[in-house]
Amino acid sequence: MTDKTHLIVSGVARSGTTALAELLNAHPQIGVGIERYKFRYLRENTYDPGFFGRDRFFDFQSGDTNLRPAERPAWAPVYDAIAAKWDTARVIGDKVPDLTPVLEDFLDAQPGTRCLYILRNLKDVGLSWQARADKPRDKWPQGKNFAAACESWAEQTSQLQALFDTRPEIKDRFLLIDYDRMYAKETPIEAALRGFLGIDPAPPFSEMLKRHRAFMARRTDRKVPPEWVEAYKSVDQAVARGLRKEARIQTARWAAV
């Protein structure tokens, strides 16, 4: 099969993009790279559609990413699995968080590419940034803490809404996903993803979704630490609420396809 849908998966960092990519890659008709070309997109502002050709996709060049399998062996099985199903895959793509500032240019350069954009609540994004910043051996910069997460989350949320306001036609290329609702049993996320991406039902895909749901069911709610309450309260979350409403509408629409 030569005609494939190209896909970009994005959202604010620590919003669940890696888990979403894992879910997608469980499907036999989908292959999604893990920040495969993030340096090309975010440093060079290069959005070549040829990146999703087979020869280039598996040619890991030094300016592509810091997650090359040669240096990060943990990701090698992901690319081995994508290579094995490439010929019959219907969807090939990449997941790169924090792509929002250049997303319009990216989609204009790749007019056939679709976008899955995941939305996660500010509190959990901020707590995740802070947890990474607090780990002394983590390469996550210490300055990317809860307060920095608030700034990034607010900025990217506004940028996404501005894109939809100025380019309403581009919304048809998006499926917004509400991370905080996607694993609820009443949310038809599996059907919505199948409808949006044009893929068939597949047991491995369904099983991975069940595993993710079980994991989410075990999570406990956490509070914003006192030292970050002011930063948290200073963020206007009205735009995000509107986007989450849009995500529910899109999910229902694509689930019905």
Which keywords apply here?
257 residues; alpha/beta; Rossmann fold; five-stranded parallel beta sheet; 12 helices; 5 strands
Structural account:
This protein is of the alpha/beta class and 257 residues long. It has one domain (5-255): Rossmann fold (3-Layer(aba) Sandwich), CATH 3.40.50. It has 12 helices and 5 strands. The chain has helices spanning 17-25, 38-42, 54-57, 76-85, 103-109, 122-133, 146-166, 179-182, 189-197, 203-218, 229-233, 238-255, and strands at residues 5-10, 30-34, 91-95, 113-119, 174-178. Helix 6 crosses helix 7 and helix 9 packs across helix 12 (238-255). The protein is globular. The model has no long low-confidence stretch (mean pLDDT 96).
Task: Summarize the structure in short.
The chain is α/β, with parallel strands linked by helices.
Number of distinct helices: 12
* CATH C-level category: Alpha Beta
As a whole number of angstroms, the C-alpha radius of gyration is 18 Å
Structural class: alpha/beta
